[in-house]
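[09:14] KT: can someone run the structure on this one? pasting the chain below
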Amino acid sequence: MWVALAFAIGQHVTAIGAALLIVYPLWDALTNYVDMSRSGGMRENLTQAFNVFASTVIAIAVIVVLSVNTSLVLDVFGVWAVLSGLLQLATAVCRWKRFGAQWAMILSGGQSALAGAFFIAQAHASVPPAIVKVAGYAGVGAIYFLVSALWLSAGQLRRKSASTH
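[09:31] RB: done, structure tokens below
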């Protein structure tokens, strides 16, 4: 939904684009918090706990940058994408033995870190606007998230079916 709003409205209406750029890291913080809580808590998931903190700080940084110098917003997203991608990669590697099926999360974390470096390199190009670049990145991340969720759900169903037979 975020990606659709970013492409359909966010790139044309500056205020909505700005709001979406603020909401995205907050949404990431929330999803990391929920996942961390359901996967053993903060002690078991220090990388996710740090990701919750980092994403919240980035949302605040986006607010500041949007009010001071909008041309820096892609730099902020670039730093965040690198950091959160590396944290996601570390989380997936730590979870591999316990949960399995972390390959989509590993790919997503690696892609995020690379995309962040690309954001920083392309931060001051005028076209397309930052919201469009971030929306493309978010769309790929959403696909990885969906694949990971489906893969883990299928694994749970297989284990549940095997234990009842």
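[09:33] KT: thanks! Residues 2-164 form one domain.
[09:34] RB: yep, looked fine to me
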